[in-house]
Specification:
Elements lengths: L3 H11 L6 E5 L4 E6 L13 H20 L6 E9 L7 E11 L3 E10 L7 E8 L8
Antiparallel strand pairs: 1-2, 2-4, 3-6, 4-5, 5-6
């Protein structure tokens, strides 16, 4: 299992544009935070859907890497998003949990929150394909 610092450094290395802060990476959940600004807003002044989807996808990727190690080629195979409330600009938080982690497939869900609210603004179900690791058939 990789530590929060190891994950943050690895992601900065493989994704130079990685702009999320890993607040927590553990066995049961991973938490990412993102500061939003005018670039992330849609008409009406709320955070855009693509921004929320990016954060949800990144949170699941980090949750998987925290468990399986440095597997840069894990890829999203499905992302289903439900939007509940209009998130205001500020700090977005994504809480990801793995529901199934197999040899080749990972399934999880992500709840997204805005500005320390206890009510989520969106929910994502995410599936990732994990490439074979050395020694696997």
């Amino acid at each position: 299992m990789l530590t929060t610092d190891e994950l943050q450094h690895y992601l900065a290395e493989i994704f130079p544009g990685f702009h999320f802060t890993i607040a927590e990476a553990g066995m049961t959940r991973t938490v990412l935070e993102m500061r939003t600004d005018a670039r992330h807003l849609r008409p009406g002044g709320t955070v855009s859907g693509p921004t929320l989807m990016e954060l949800a996808d990144a949170a699941m990727y980090v949750a998987i890497l925290a468990q399986v190690g440095k597997v840069a080629l894990a890829v999203t195979t499905n992302l289903n998003m439900n939007f509940y409330r209009k998130p205001e600009p500020g700090i977005l938080r994504a809480e990801a949990r793995l529901l199934k982690l197999g040899q080749r497939l990972a399934v999880g869900d992500v709840l997204l929150f805005a500005n320390d609210s206890a009510q989520s603004v969106a929910h994502a179900s995410v599936t990732y394909s994990i490439p074979p690791r050395p020694g696997q058939a």
